[in-house]
């Protein structure tokens, strides 16, 4: 089974090489494509200096568009699975094998790397994750312990859906929507690394706004999605 790691990046010059080096060392069988989402730092130069396969967006289009671009690349090149893999180094490649095995054994459409299957949620992110998890449980009757995790493996069918549909953003509300429509989404316990360089685009205010938008979308808006 061929796996493509989609590495969306926005201003991750300080983290990208370390992230790719770890991926190559721990999972050499996994191919990758960097999607440089209009970075203003040296992300593009890091890709050029190291010969990374890269798709360069003309300007910053956001995570959903960057991931969709990677999904289209995965479909065009015949990959069986696509992995959403952050360029900031927080996702650990040691778990990719377990995620791929679980997808095969369970016939899952999406496998999510969960921080909270073996550890209790902490801090504002953990609280927000619990809130979104409750919203998903109410609207779908199913549970996710870590709906905000961006460490996700998608099967071939999901690759096609994300490649074709603009409203399939890589967010918790899309997971809820897919679950409501019969997709099988399972979790595997993982440990996330701490960011060691660069800066997250989500400060406290932005994170609170994000959680509120996702909650409203899961509770109300996703019932009207097509």
Shape: globular
Rg (C-alpha, Å): 17 Å
Strand content: 5-15%
Query: Low-confidence parts, pLDDT < 50 over ≥5 residues?
Result: none
Briefly note the structural class of the backbone.
alpha/beta
Instruction: Describe the largest sheet.
Output: 7 strands, mixed
Topology, number of strands: 7
Q: Provide a count of the helices.
A: 8
- Average pLDDT taken over every residue: 91
| Distance linking N and C termini | 30 Å
Helix content: 40-55%
Q: Give the strand order, joined by hyphens, for the main sheet.
A: 3-2-1-4-6-5-7
N-to-C SSE series? EHEHEHEHEHEHHEH
Brief summary:
By secondary structure, the chain is α/β, with parallel strands linked by helices. It has helices at 13-26, 43-50, 63-76, 96-106, 123-140, 156-164, 172-180, 204-219; strands at residues 3-9, 31-36, 54-56, 81-84, 110-114, 152-154, 185-189. Strand 1 (3-9), helix 1 (13-26) and strand 2 form a beta-alpha-beta unit.
How would you describe this protein?
Strand 2, helix 2 and strand 3 (54-56) form a beta-alpha-beta unit. A 7-stranded mixed beta sheet has the order 3-2-1-4-6-5-7, with helices on both faces. It has helices at 13-26, 43-50, 63-76, 96-106, 123-140, 156-164, 172-180, 204-219; strands at 3-9, 31-36, 54-56, 81-84, 110-114, 152-154, 185-189. Helix 1 runs parallel beside helix 2 (43-50), helix 3 (63-76) packs across helix 6 (156-164) and helix 5 runs parallel beside helix 7 (172-180). It is built from 8 helices and 7 strands; from the N terminus they run E-H-E-H-E-H-E-H-E-H-E-H-H-E-H. By secondary structure, the chain is an alpha/beta fold. The model has no long low-confidence stretch (mean pLDDT 91). It starts with a strand and ends in a 7-residue tail after the last helix.
């Amino acid at each position: 089974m061929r796996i493509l790691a989609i590495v969306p990046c926005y201003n991750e010059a300080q983290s990208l090489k370390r992230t790719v080096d770890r991926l190559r060392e721990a999972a050499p069988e996994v191919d990758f494509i960097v999607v440089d989402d209009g970075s203003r730092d040296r992300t593009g130069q890091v890709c050029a200096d190291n010969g990374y396969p890269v798709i360069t967006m003309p300007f910053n289009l956001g995570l959903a568009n960057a991931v969709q671009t990677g999904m289209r690349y995965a479909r065009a090149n015949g990959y069986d699975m696509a992995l959403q893999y952050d360029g900031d180094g927080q996702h650990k490649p040691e778990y990719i094998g377990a995620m791929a095995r679980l997808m095969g054994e369970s016939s899952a459409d999406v496998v999510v790397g969960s921080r909270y299957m073996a550890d209790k949620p902490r801090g504002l992110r953990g609280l927000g994750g619990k809130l979104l998890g409750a919203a998903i449980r109410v609207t779908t009757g199913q549970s996710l312990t870590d709906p905000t995790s961006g460490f996700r493996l998608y099967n071939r069918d999901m690759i096609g859906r994300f490649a074709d549909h603009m409203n399939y953003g890589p967010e918790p509300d899309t997971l809820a929507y897919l679950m409501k429509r019969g997709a099988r989404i399972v979790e595997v316990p993982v440990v996330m690394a701490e960011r060691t360089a660069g800066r997250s685009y989500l400060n406290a205010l932005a994170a609170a706004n994000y959680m509120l938008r996702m909650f409203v979308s899961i509770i109300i808006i996703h019932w009207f999605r097509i």
